[in-house]
Amino acid sequence: MKKLELFLFLALILFCGDAVQAQTFEYPRGCSGPNIFSNPPVFFAEINVDGAVAPDGLEVGLFDDTDGLVGRGTVNSGEVLFFVQGEQTGNGCPVFAPGETVTLKAVLPVGIRLAANSTFTGTLTNGVFDGPDGTTSQTDLFDFRTVTLPVTLLDFRAVTIDRKVELNWATSEEINNSHFEIERSANPTESFVNVGKVLGNGTSEALNTYRFVDPTAEEGINYYRLKQIDFDGTFEYSPIVVVELEEAPQRLLSVFPNPVEVNGRLTVRLQGGWAKGATTLTLFDAGGRRVGKWTELSNGSFNTELPALPAGLYQLVATDGTERLTTGVVVR
Q1: Could you tell me if 104 and 140 lie in one domain?
Q2: What's the first-to-final CA gap in the chain, in angstroms?
Q3: What is the pLDDT of residues 44-74, one digit of tens each?
């Protein structure tokens, strides 16, 4: 909260000071903009341009579902904070109402641009904008592009369903779009791993919707992004979405895919408080002979190449000394 209070103070200076660059986004005639002394909603976000930190002074505006300006600000050190019009200041002036669709725009040298996640449902938590991810616990990142992308991403979101993560996204235009690779990370500042692939629609001007279910998401915070790949191999990354998978109330053991191909790879998912670094997986054949073993595991997803096994039914046993669970694995 101290950080937020600091930014509120800085924002007050910016709105009142003469050194601030004149805004391109203007409130309608007769509308004075938010009254900062009446505790209007506050919007705080990180701003990129073409994947890099936005330059200081970049103008950003928030618009309601009638394209009326309800808030504006300038980027400072890659971040923007401004107040949002939450009460009437004149007849017919645009006013933000929680739950309505809003759009964030930026003024770039090549013109006004949108980020892939610019349009979203605006909600509030204690007077602060939640942003596209629906929570104030994570700062939303908006990446504005100066060039026309091969794919126009309208929406990208992640939700948890039955202890899995479901990703949904939509495009309004695609040019030579081969496919999307879905990438996940527990720490986006370090690395992402590929967890799946969805074919694109080549070249299309129609609305296309996509869905991908990640059955191997780990308990805790998961970060996702799309890697959109053209037929010529060029690619672009989407903005990152965040979803939290709560710890299971009891210990669970699951495998994916099942059946698994001979000499294929298997992902094992441990949930619900398995002893950290002290969980063992053992694979037995139909005759009870041990054909595989993995040790020092913890909660999360474990991906491995199966040993050379003939097709058949196997039993995978997980134990940490206090709990023992078994699941069948079909090799075909």
Answers
A1: yes
A2: 55
A3: 999 999 889 999 999 999 998 888 899 999 9
What are the tokens at 294?
């993995």
* Pair 259, 241 in one domain: no
Query: Residues, the chain, total?
Result: 332
Q: Domain range for residue 262?
A: 252-331
CA-atom Rg of the chain in angstroms: 24
Residues facing residue 256 across a β-bridge: 267
Strand partners, 44: 81
Last residue of a domain, one of 144, 171, 195: 144
Write down the pTM of the prediction. 0.46
- How many alpha carbons lie under 13 Å from residue 176 in its C-beta half-sphere? 10
Sign, Cα dihedral of 188, 194, 200, 202:
positive
CA distances to 32, 104, 105, 108, 126 from 143, rounded to whole Å, are 29, 11, 11, 12, 26
Contacts of 5 (CB under 8 A, 6+ apart): none
Q: What is the DSSP letter of 258?
A: S
Residue type, 113: R
pLDDT in tens, 185-206: 988 777 899 999 999 999 888 8
Neighbouring C-alpha atoms within 13 Å toward the C-beta of 227: 14
**CATH no. for residue 306?**
2.60.40.1220
